[in-house]
Structures are given as structure tokens and as C-alpha cells.
Amino acid sequence: MDKHYLSPLFDPESIILFTGNENDPAGQTPHAQALLAGFRAQTYRGRVTELSTQTTGTLGDLAQTRADLAIIALPPDEIVAALELAGRIKCKAAMVLSAGIGAPLAAEMARTAQRHGVMLLGPNSQGFQRPAWLLNASTLGPLATSGQQALVSQSGALTAAILDWARQNRVGFSTVVSVGPHSALRIADMLDFLASDRHTQAIVVYMEGISNARRFMSALRAAASSKPVVVLKAGRKLAGNAAAQTHSGSIVGSDAVFDAALRRAGAVRVRSFVELFSAAKCLASRYRPVGKRLAIITNGGGPGVLAADWVSEIGLQLGVLSEAAARVLLPQLPPIASLADLIDLSEDAQPEHYRLALEAAARDRAVDGVLVIYSPKVGGDAEAIARVLADARPQLSKPLLSCWMGDASVGAARTLMADAQIPTFRTPEAAVGAFRNISSFYQNQQLLQQTPPPLSQLAAPDVEGARLLIESVLAERRQALTEMESKALLAAFHIPVTSTILARNPSEAMMIAAQQGFPVALKVDSPDISHKSDVGGVALNVMNATQVRDVYHDMMANVARARPDARINGITVQAMARMRRGRELYIGVVTDDPFGPVIAFGAGGTMIELMGGNAMELPPLNQFLAHRLIERARVAETLGEWRGAPAVNMQALERVLLRVSEMVCELPQLREMDINPIIVDEHGAVAVDARIVVGHAPSTSAGGGRGYGHLAILPYPARYEQIWPLRGGGEYTVRPIHPGDAQMLQDLTKRLSPESRYFRFVSSMPELPPGMLSRFTLIDYDREMALCAVIKEEKLGEDGQQEVSERFIAVSRYITNPDHTSCEFSLVVDDAFAGQGLGTRMMHSIMDVARDRGLQEIVGMVLTSNGAMLKLMQSLGFSVKAYPDDPDFRLVTHVL
User: Which terminus of the chain, N or C, has less C-beta within 10 A?
Assistant: First the structure.
């Protein structure tokens, strides 16, 4: 599990080139000529062999030229033959450099590569670069400078432009890869490799679209959990779906959903090329902000005010020194300096003043990051002040950004700060924007850590009843539920709804209204009318029986004129919600392509489209995610004490959002939903109106999450939790791992004997590095699963009271192989619990999960010297074979 499946592609020890006749350059493709020019420009450290598809000889002869990677730059009609040859001589990876190859031929190439077990990058790829290896396997121009950032792009032209820009701006790369359309390997595969690449500290992605949301989110979450990922996406779309049958479908655009997906994955999205590398440069530093309070140190009021205005504009907070810190600092500054909000050192500021201000801001707990602005002044020393920042940076624990305004007089200062790895900008707004990016990284990382189960801890919903209701609607070949059906579905998930009764004539309406109590609301009930108010189908505050009768007649006539084709079941009667100071809100669901269901929240009522400011989140939700979703909506400002009304019951609102998340997870048939309005006050929440659209459940691949294949993010699989007895008394729980288990996993690793650590990690490291610890505990439960055995221990606390703590005693894990039919496992057992059957139980449990996920074979690598593990494998029915690539290991396999 230590060597990535794409290592033969990106870290090849030997390469075969298919570039056509070397004696006839004019007959070679432009891609072949550019590729060969790249190889001639520097000496690649591995072995390179040129081969032709016309080569004669037996496969035995050709096998002598076997290589890790085959690079193919041939005319389209020769590519499949070259791939066939590469597969037969056992190349592990191949790359096709081309342009303009359509989907049918690309699919044939993918099938050929898959048949031979070859990882295929391309067609239509412009290749990749690995500068530290002096490997330029691309048509992107000269080899980039070596650095710690990786660039992944879906556009060859933009990749070449970025590399040209990077050469002029002293930006280096660990990896550059241009994927291209119709490539067999996708952006998700690139992210998967870079997440574990020790030479990459930050990842920059330019993308235009994705095909498999689950695979993309899985890889992106894994990468973002261990290193910063910055994404620039083209093709933003503002308009909603014109065919949508609910408000949700019309107001939620795909670009907003992509925002929500990136936020949930822990990545940072930027909107422009300019922001792309400034964000990556900041995030690649070893410092991380813990909030959004940015202190601004300046020697000019104008630039400082511009920066402060932009702080407010983009949702940050101005970091202001505490009173105690300001009292100490102010006497040491020039007489006209001000610390009211900005740290304005005035035009008389000298390097020493900058040093004192920077130290004060760095110490102050009310500050999360520092921006230092310098504006050229007569007698000022831009370079000396820059040197103050460079000297201070190694001691800082907070992000430091700089803005040296001007040009000719500050060039040397900018160079000095660039050498000290201090992000430097030409304008205050750009510097503040860069801090916003790293601040959002911290916030998004909190979202990434959340792994909610599909069902909350609230009372269990009537899922079966809800499914029966949906099936009856679909059996009638309908998609839109009536208001009464919609409210019944909400009630099955314990969402409070107003009592609603259908009247089929004016007399029934009057009797029902009298029972409900006046005033009442009357609404037309029709499966064909999405927006009732548009056709005169809603009447509010009807005060007496006579008015009910008249409104009934008028409404039926109005609706018949506006929609003569609509089926009318009757008119519903419901008591008006008696929440005088309640806020009208909206909760919706829309199904996005390709991310699946998305939950939206914002202002409700008839002005929903005009008010805007809705927030979105991918399910599943927990209370933390529900709270953050509410905070992001513009309407959040009105939910506290507002215009004399008391604050709303936030817990009740969060509970409704959790219930909606349950609906989305458990009902894959749910396509669109409006709860509008849902009225919330200090006492609780009630759904006044609801509109739901359903469809047949989307088909998913085998093992696609046991009913959760429609979600881009799998819920925490609580169904795999089991309790087992310990030999000698007591019990332990086997459950899936989650991010909160990182410290327990680290403690288990530290307790292992050196021999056990070596058997598990083939390393004598005393503890897991942070990146590996994060990667082992934050998993997607789709292509990877880890089960931990947990016991509870009682001990005396410092206050003398008994405390209960948890402890890991074993962990089993598998990760799905690239063939998507087999998986590789690992197992570790606490030395103190050896010989108690834990290894057997953990292997059976992880094999059961793999079987449940539709996998067909489980494999593992066991050190030849690890006799106990080999004996366990044999007892479980694994076959044990020699591993031809390394005699120190045995290959163990078991058919599931």
C-alpha cells in the first residue's frame, strides 16, 4: 500500500518511445517532434528506448525492452497498435500525446489498455513534467523549474501559458500534467497520486468539468486532507434549469453547487488566473490561519483604508490590537501614528517601527494574520523594511503577507521578500484576497472533517412509509406530489407541518375551516401546477365561512381559466400559522449533474427568487454542517433579535435541516423539494407549504453504498458497527474509523513494538507523520475502508473521579485497486492483545465489508519474516505465493 499505482507513470525507471521513424522527422507528428526535443534538452535519469510498431521479432525478444512507461506520439490510426504492443511487452503505464481524437477511438484505446492492465493517460493529453527527475514527457515547452507545487490541468493551451508565466515569476513545480478530454485517467487519478507524493506540498488545479462526482470528491477530499488544493474552474453557469418544477430547481445553479462541493472537500476555489498561484503560494507555507481576522500594518492611510474596505467587502474581519497591546505599542511609534483600527504607523515610520508593530500583531490573540503595506515615501527605505519582515518570518506562527506599492523603487525589496518566501502583492486588494483564500482553507478543512451518518440521533423516521408513498405516486406515472402528499412525506421524517385537509366542494371547505379555526389559508390542490400563486391558486387570511365559500368558487374559476389542462383534486384548507414574529424561510433540495442531491437554505416567501443569498451544502449533514449552512445564507442576519422580534429557535431550524438530510440520504427517488415558507420563531419551526418532485432511483454500480450511490459523499457507515466479547472478559466494538480517531491511531502506533511497526509499515518510524495520520483516518468509505477495534478503559482523573476513555487495540483496512474489482488489505493488532483472536475477527470483518461493496478478491503483501501473519492468512484460507518482484515479501490472496 506504500507504492502508488501511478508510480510507473510519474516515476518510471524506464521509458519506451513510440514516435515514428527517427530518420524521417518530417513524417513524425508535431507531438512527437516536441516530445523528442524535450528529451534532448536535458538528460532524464532513467533508461529511454525508442520502438516502432513495425518492429519485427518474437515477444520474447521484445520482452527484453520492457519498461514502466510507454509514450505514444503517433498518427491516430497507429495508436491502438502501439498500445497493443506496449501491453504485450508488459508496460505498466502508457501515455498518448495527441489532439482532436474523438470519443469512439478514445474508448477503443481505453479498452485496449484495460485488457492489458495498462494505466492510460490520454488520448488528447499534452503530457507531464517531473522537473526533479529531469523528465519532460510533454509537448508543453521547456522543462519547468523544480518546486513543491503540482499543476493539474484539463487544458493543454492553458498549461503551456501557465508554465511560460511561471518561468518569469520564479514559480517551480513538482509535477505538471495536462489531462485533456477523453483521457482514460482523469483528474481524480492525478489528485490521488499527488496526495501521496512526498515531493508535492500544494496542488493547483485548472478544470472545466468532471464525469464521476463520487470518484472526484473521493480523490479531492483525500488530497485536501493532507495538503492545500486550489481550484480554478472555467465554465461558470449563472442560470438555473428552465424545466425545473420547483423553486429549488430554478434558483440553484451548477456553479453554486460546485462551490459547495469544493468547500465540503476542504479545497479552496479561486475565480481568476491571477488568484490561482497567489493562493497556492500562501497555502504552501507551513503556517495556517485559525480565523478571518487580518491585522493591517501600513505607513499610509489611503492604502490601509483600501485594504480595510476590501476586508469588509469579502467577508473577512479587521484584526484590531487589544487595548493592552495598543497601550504598550503606541508610545514606541511616531507621534501621529494611530492604532484605532488599522495599525497606521504614519509617513514617519522607520524599519524599527515596522518590527515593533509586527511583533505586537503576531503576539495578539485577536489577530489571525498580518498584512504589511509599504507605500514609497521620501527618505523611506523599502529594502530595510522588507528585511525586517524576512528576519521575522521564521519566528511567526501566523500568515504574513506584504504589499509593497509602486514599482521601480521597490523592486529589490520585492525580490528580497520573495527569496524569504513571503507572499508579496502590488495592490492591497490582491493581498487581502490572498488572505481570504487561506482563511477559507481553514474553514473548509473543518467541513472536510465532518463525516455524518445518514440518520441523525433524533427519533427514527418512518422511512418505509415514505417509500411506499413515493412508489404509489410513481405507479400513477406522476412525478410531482400534491401539497398533501408532500406534507405527509415531511411528517414521516418528523418535520412539523401545518394541518392541511382537502375539500372537494365549498360546503366541505366551510366545515373544515370552522374546525381548523379562522383565519385559514386556501390553496388549489393539483399535481400539474407547480407554483400555485402564479395562477391565483392561493388565498391567505380568509376570515369567515362566507368568505371561504366565495374564495372557493373564485379560485376554481381562476385556475380553470389559467390552466384549463390541469387536473384539480380540490382545494386544501389549513389554519394560518400563528407565528406573528416568525421569519419566513426556505429549505430546498435540487439534484445536480454530476454531484447529485444538494440542500439549499435561504429567505422564503413569494420573494424567494428576488432576495437571493441562498446557501448550499452537500448531504449528509450533522449539526455542525447545518449550523454553518445557516450562517452562510444572507437571511442569517435576521435570525437573531431583529426589529423587536426575539431570536428564532436555532436548534429547531437545525433539526429541520437534519431531517431534510435524512430524507435526501434515505430517499434516492427525491429529485426536487421546496419547503417554502417554513416559518421559524422563538418557539419552533413549522412548514407551511411544500412541493416535492420524485423520480425513479438512479441506477448505481454494484456495491454502490447500499442505497447511497446517489450521493457524492458517502455517509458514515454506522451499519458496520459490531460488539464482540474479549477473551478473558470484557468486550470491544468494531466500527469504521473517522477523523476524530487520529490521536487513538497515533497512540496505537506508538505502543507497537519496533518489530510490529516494521511488519506493518516496513519502516522503523516511531509514530505516523501528520500527512499519513490524516490519510489513514479521513477516508471516503467508498474505495477505502478502515475498521478499528475499540475498548473502553476506566481510570482516575486529576480530580479523583473515574473517567472513561477509549483505546484502539486493532485496525484492519482495505483500499480498492484500480481494477475496481479487488482490494489490498492491511492489519495491525496491539501487542498487548496478541493471541486473543483479534486478527481473525478483524480480517473477517473487513472481508465482509469488501464483499458487501461488491469486490471480488482481497490481496496483501506480507513480509517473509512475519511468520505469525502468514500463519493467520493460511488459517483464513488465503493462498500464499512468492512475490516475483521482491523475495522479501509473500503475496496472499483470497477470493471473496
Answer: N
